[in-house]
Design goal:
about 350 residues; two-stranded antiparallel ribbon; two-stranded antiparallel sheet; 4 strands; about 65% helix; about 5% strand
Length: about 350
């Protein structure tokens, strides 16, 4: 495999990660997993997003590239739909087994408690591997042996004419690999751990995720002397905007304590930081220090580990998170080492 072929493959993988984990909203992901024809609009919409992310390869390679766009978009929709169907079946089977256990024990059939199954998490991983396999096979058959379109090659050569070609290739390749590594550990890793660890409950015959804590009731309308504040959130960053105090009445108002962050969001942020730290250690060649990261996280939860249910879910989530970080980091190291 030449350096240019490796760069094309890296771009393909990054296009997949962007379409699946950056441009796909949670609402779209839930909608395309709906039963029956209700999932088709979201499924076709996601396939269109995938196709748009691969369109640059059609412009760069001509006919082989457009075949690549069609193959990737159609196969992506088929793989996603298959995963959704198999996931629903696995969850229904796990729920039925939990119901049978409760009936045998003579407990109430509603609110069965955690009906956990590893199958949805495994299907998430298999789904991603299937997408990558299609990309690699299609790249091998179509793009690895296809020349660049003359018009695109001329445009790229003119744009890079003042730059050293080898240096530009090296910088772009490293940037693509690191961008993919960031998406895997920030977005894909969080979704994988969430799908694998989340318990499922039965409520009136329906399968649901474990209920979140009841929402905090909205605060009463502040009096005229209280400055109005707004909370806002961008990704994992939450802020609070308060008008200029000088423009407000000077009547003293008792401070309102800030509400704590939801536990799920805090745990997700901890997992992201954990994976990014592990990736950094692997890239720096300090793999031995990974144990310190895990030990520090475990010490913070030490007292809670007496609860067996919590301990099992905590260890499962931690091991899954560490596995995502280490595997992706070593793959990235191997790709970067291929530059020589």
């Amino acid at each position: 495999m030449t350096a240019d072929q490796g760069l094309v493959l890296a771009w393909l993988l990054l296009a997949h990660l962007v379409s699946d984990f950056v441009l796909q909203s949670g609402r779209m992901a839930r909608s395309k997993a709906a039963p029956g024809n209700a999932a088709l609009p979201a499924l076709f919409g996601h396939a269109l997003v995938v196709a748009l992310c691969v369109v640059p390869f059609g412009l760069a390679f001509g006919t082989p590239g457009w075949w690549m766009v069609a193959i990737v978009a159609v196969s992506h929709a088929a793989i996603d739909r298959t995963k959704s169907l198999l996931t629903r079946r696995a969850e229904a089977a796990a729920l039925a087994e939990a119901r049978r256990r409760h009936e045998a024990a003579g407990t109430a059939p509603d609110g069965l408690g955690p009906a956990w199954t590893p199958v949805p998490g495994a299907l998430f991983a298999v789904d991603q591997l299937a997408h990558v396999a299609v990309l690699v096979v299609a790249w091998t058959a179509l793009l690895s042996v296809a020349p660049l379109d003359p018009g695109f090659a001329g445009w790229a050569g003119g744009w890079l004419g003042r730059w050293d070609q080898a240096l530009a290739h090296d910088v772009v390749f490293r940037a693509v690999v690191l961008a993919g590594l960031l998406i895997v550990n920030v977005r894909a890793g969080a979704l994988f751990v969430g799908v694998l660890v989340v318990p499922r409950l039965a409520t009136e015959g329906r399968t649901t995720e474990a209920p979140a804590p009841p929402p905090t009731p909205p605060p009463a309308t502040p009096p005229a002397s209280t400055p109005v504040a707004w909370t806002f959130q961008v990704g994992l960053i939450e802020g609070r905007a308060v008008p200029d105090q000088a423009a407000q009445p000077t009547t003293p108002v008792a401070p309102t304590p800030a509400a704590p962050a939801p536990p799920g969001r805090v745990g997700e942020a901890i997992g992201i930081l954990e994976r990014l730290l592990i990736v950094t250690l692997v890239l720096a060649g300090a793999e031995a220090a990974i144990g310190l990261v895990i030990a520090a996280k475990t010490l913070a939860r030490f007292k809670q580990l007496d609860d067996r249910d919590f301990a099992e879910y905590y260890l499962l989530g931690t091991l899954a998170s560490v596995a995502v970080a280490t595997v992706s980091a070593f793959v990235a190291v191997a790709a970067l080492d291929s530059l020589g």
